[in-house]
Design brief:
Chain B: This is Mediator of RNA polymerase II transcription subunit 21. Chain B: Pfam families: Med21. Chain B: It is found in: Nucleus. Chain B: Component of the Mediator complex, which includes at least MED4, MED6, MED14, MED17, MED18, MED20, MED21, MED23, MED24, MED27, MED30 and MED31. Also interacts with MED7 and MED10. The complex is a heterodimer of chains A (220) and B (142). Chain A has 220 residues and is mostly helical. Chain A has a domain of 147 residues. In chain A, 66% of the residues lie in helices and 4% in strands. Chain A has eight helices and two strands, in the order αααββααααα. In chain A, strands 1-2 form a two-stranded antiparallel ribbon. In chain A, β1 and β2 form a beta hairpin. With 142 residues, chain B is mostly helical. Among the domains of chain B are: 57 residues; 31 residues. The longest helix of chain B has 58 residues. Chain B is rod-shaped. Chain B starts with a helix and ends with a helix. The chains are: A mainly alpha (220), B mainly alpha (142). Chains A and B meet through α4, α5, α6 and α8 of A and α1, α2 and α3 of B.
Chain lengths: 220, 142
């Protein structure tokens, strides 16, 4: 009805028509059209000749002037199965009409009934789409959370391993201390006649001790 | 492969095509039948040879199998138990948990960075001490 009155195209124009509005010159001269404002809470807007209401994402069958075959509160799967079986029964009835009385007006009525059944089935299936979108989003968030937990656990494991390596290296240090003592003994025997170097003998041990103290402080 | 809703809608559309094709093909390949008590005296119209296949049986099988597929796909759809409120609360809970795990991950990364700084400082001290020892040894040799 509205399509015949206003002659609205059912598809958008090709992208070149929109791209041409946004050349650099148009943007510089502020001629590029701005995006439309978002619709208000209960505003009804028209998109390609179809009226849309912001409240419901999917238009109900009543608002499309289509007869509703299912009750208001229903189990979707049972109603879909009923519609499927009704399709078969109506098809068999149509074949009977074609065999017995092909020219009767009931044939066209039967065809309209079958079309109505198909429309109702598709509407019920399309009502699952918002649920499907939310479920997909939930699955994505679950995967994100699992990835984060696994990454944190792996990082923690590497952290513990690094700490173990550092502690192992630290526990291996006293062996160097013993070697240093024996080295110190050698130095003492070598420079024993020269008393002037007695002060210098303490320097390597002092430096080594300072290194050990700094290492212990850093690790703890 | 598409999701189950798209599969189901495609199967419903396929069933509609089966309905149209069944009537069209059967009508196209049907044989003329004689009227009762109305036979011509002259020579009979030659009856064309019957078709090799039974199209009625073929389309009946196709339509029945398609209807069974539709039933199976309908059975695989989710129940009404997962309603909108349940989904929304689940999404909010998942968002909170995601933020919590993000904070945990940041804390672990910060610990790792602290340990890295400590190790770098330790290595720096070790290198400095080694340099000092080398200088001291050179002095002793001189």
């Amino acid at each position: 009805m509205s399509n015949q009155e206003t002659q609205v195209s059912s598809l958008p124009m090709p992208p070149e028509r929109y791209i041409a509005n946004y050349t650099d010159e148009n943007i510089r001269r502020n001629r590029a059209p701005r995006p439309p404002p978002p619709p208000a809470q209960h505003e009804v807007y028209s998109m390609f000749g179809i009226q849309y209401n912001n409240d419901e994402m999917i238009r109900s069958l009543e608002s499309q002037n289509i007869k509703r075959l299912i009750p208001i509160h229903f189990d979707r799967r049972k109603e879909l199965k009923k519609l499927n079986h009704s399709l078969l029964v109506n098809f068999l009835d149509l074949i009977d009409f074609l065999i017995l009385n092909p020219d009767s007006p009931r044939r066209t009525e039967k065809i309209d009934d079958i079309s109505l059944l198909f429309v109702n089935m598709h509407h019920l299936l399309n009502e699952f789409r918002p649920h499907q979108a939310r479920e997909t989003l939930r699955v994505m968030m679950e995967m994100q959370k699992r990835q984060r937990v696994e990454t944190a656990a792996r990082f923690q494991k590497h952290l513990e391993r690094v700490r173990e390596i550092v502690n192992t290296a630290f526990s291996a240090l006293p062996v160097l201390d013993d070697d240093d003592d024996s080295g110190g003994a050698k130095i003492k025997t070598e420079v024993d006649p020269l008393e002037a170097n007695a002060a210098a003998k303490n320097d390597p041990s002092y430096q080594h001790d300072r290194m050990l103290c700094k290492l212990v402080d850093a690790i703890e | 492969m598409a999701d189950r809703l798209t599969q189901l809608q495609d199967t419903v559309n396929q069933q509609a095509e089966h309905f149209c094709n069944a009537i069209g093909v059967i009508q196209q390949t049907s044989l003329p039948s004689k009227f009762v008590n109305f036979e011509r005296i002259g020579p009979q119209t030659p009856i064309p040879c019957p078709p090799q296949e039974d199209y009625a049986q073929l389309f009946a099988q196709l339509i029945a199998r398609c209807a069974k597929d539709i039933d199976t796909l309908i059975e695989s759809l989710p129940n009404e138990d997962s309603s909108i409120e349940l989904q929304n609360s689940s999404l909010k809970r998942l968002e909170i948990e995601n933020q919590g795990t993000a904070r945990d991950l940041e804390e672990v990364v910060q610990k790792g960075e602290l340990l890295l700084e400590k190790m770098q400082y330790s290595l720096e001290c070790i290198a400095q001490a080694q340099l000092d020892m080398q200088i001291t040894l050179k002095h002793d040799l001189q």
